């Protein structure tokens, strides 16, 4: 990963994104823990994540906006706006204010789709294509590393002092992130302002993805899992109830997932370099299925936690592989809209599955729910392998060719 950090501007960008990601790691679980504490409801706590994902409904319009402005200023002012949207949480005092937490969760969701879309475009401007996997792997590993302590820190602060210290940390992290990113020096190409019909502009990202055979099949593969993976958010508290653990124990689970995720994040760029992005995602889905299956089958707490670590191990290869593939195969002028289209394609089924999971957790065992998710992950791996076997072989040949030593030119014989 040292090559990416050798490029001017990337280190500063990396630190800025890392600081804001730390604030997110401290805050995110606290939102659902807060709702669970105020209401006592597993479903209400799970629905908090639904509101975050609901923002994806506005992604197409936001994508046009992202593609019409330069990415660095978008990241700077987007971080400032994200700091401001958290401020209303200072006014939550009892269960009657749960709606305020959900409103902030929705706006947080807007931040979650706008900032990554702008970051995708900025990375493509800042780095050569062959270093994108390294950059994405470094950022993913760092974000996941915060799962080792960020959620636990947030839960401890929430249990000890209440929510206000967590809110304050999140605000400061966004402000510091904005200041650091503002100092990144990069020459950005002028945004292309479309002159076509509004509908054509709104759907440009979708069409870019649909016309690319690899991206189309990868997205279908992801959706097969995403239509059920949201069950995990609403059933996780049922898992904790089964083991007699309090809601704040979710931070321990998240921390343990982070152990696997950090290791996988650091290795993701190497895995991609060895087998390609598509095969890396297949491996990620297989490992995810294994982790979900362990949680479904075991009755021992330590084995369940080991399964959670395996789930964490699966996530970086999936997302680093996908993000790198998206950056490589998408034209820069529609990067924002393509990123937003991905959010719609991925977040909509995930949001629906969270809503369904909130009802499902009340009528079936969490074991059945985790088994369903494991089967879906196997289906995703099988679909991508079957439809993109040619791409997987082509990637493997390209890796082999790149690793082969160059032939030594024969010297002319002396006469």
Main features:
Growth Hormone, Chain: A, globular, disordered C terminus, 79% helix, 415 residues, mainly alpha, 0% strand
Model description:
It is a single chain. This protein has 415 residues and is mostly helical. The chain has a single domain, classed as MFS general substrate transporter like domains (Growth Hormone, Chain: A), CATH 1.20.1250.20. Helices cover 79% and strands 0% of the residues. The chain has 19 helices and no strands. Helix 12 packs antiparallel against helix 18. The longest helix is centred in the first third of the chain and has 30 residues. The C terminus is likely disordered.
Task: Write the topology of this structure.
Elements: H1 2-5, H2 10-39, H3 42-54, H4 59-67, H5 71-86, H6 98-126, H7 132-145, H8 150-161, H9 164-182, H10 198-202, H11 204-211, H12 213-229, H13 231-242, H14 250-275, H15 277-297, H16 301-329, H17 335-360, H18 366-387, H19 389-403
Helix pairs in contact: 2-3, 2-6, 2-7, 2-8, 2-9, 3-6, 3-13, 3-17, 4-6, 4-17, 5-6, 5-9, 6-17, 7-14, 7-16, 8-14, 11-17, 12-17, 12-18, 13-17, 13-18, 14-15, 14-16, 15-16, 15-18
């Amino acid at each position: 990963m040292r090559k990416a950090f050798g490029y001017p501007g990337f280190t500063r960008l990396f630190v800025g994104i890392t600081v804001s990601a730390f604030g997110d790691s401290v805050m995110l679980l606290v939102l659902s823990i807060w709702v669970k504490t105020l209401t006592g409801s597993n479903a209400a706590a799970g629905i908090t994540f639904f509101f975050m994902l609901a923002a994806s409904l506005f992604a197409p319009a936001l994508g046009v906006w992202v593609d019409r402005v330069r990415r660095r200023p978008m990241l700077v002012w987007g971080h400032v706006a994200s700091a401001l949207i958290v401020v209303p949480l200072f006014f939550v005092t009892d269960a009657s204010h749960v709606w305020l937490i959900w409103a902030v969760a929705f706006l947080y969701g807007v931040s979650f789709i706008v900032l990554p879309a702008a970051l995708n475009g900025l990375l493509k401007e800042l780095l050569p294509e062959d270093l994108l996997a390294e950059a994405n792997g470094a950022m993913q590993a760092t974000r996941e590393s915060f799962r080792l302590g960020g959620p636990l820190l947030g839960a401890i602060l929430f249990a000890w002092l209440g929510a206000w210290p967590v809110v304050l940390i999140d605000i400061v992290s966004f402000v510091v992130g904005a200041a650091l990113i503002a100092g990144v020096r990069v020459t950005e190409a002028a945004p292309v302002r479309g002159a076509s019909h509004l509908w054509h502009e709104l759907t440009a990202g979708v069409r870019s993805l649909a016309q690319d055979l690899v991206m189309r099949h990868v997205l279908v593969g992801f959706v097969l899992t995403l239509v059920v993976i949201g069950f995990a958010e609403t059933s996780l508290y049922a898992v904790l109830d089964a083991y007699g653990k309090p809601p704040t124990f979710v931070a321990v689970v998240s921390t343990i997932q982070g152990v696997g995720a950090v290791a996988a994040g650091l290795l993701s760029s190497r895995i991609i370099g060895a087998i390609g992005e598509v095969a890396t995602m297949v491996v990620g889905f297989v490992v995810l299925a294994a982790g979900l299956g362990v949680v479904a089958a075991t009755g021992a707490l330590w084995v369940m936690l080991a399964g959670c670590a395996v789930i964490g191990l699966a996530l970086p290869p999936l997302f680093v592989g996908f993000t790198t593939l998206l950056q490589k195969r998408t034209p820069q002028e529609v990067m924002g809209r393509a990123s937003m289209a991905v959010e719609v394609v991925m977040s909509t089924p995930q949001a629906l599955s969270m809503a369904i999971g909130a009802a499902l957790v009340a009528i079936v065992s969490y074991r059945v729910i985790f088994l369903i998710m494991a089967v879906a992950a196997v289906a995703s791996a099988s679909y991508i392998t079957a439809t993109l076997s040619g791409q997987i072989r082509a990637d493997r040949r390209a890796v082999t060719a790149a690793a082969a030593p160059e032939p030594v030119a024969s010297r002319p014989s002396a006469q």
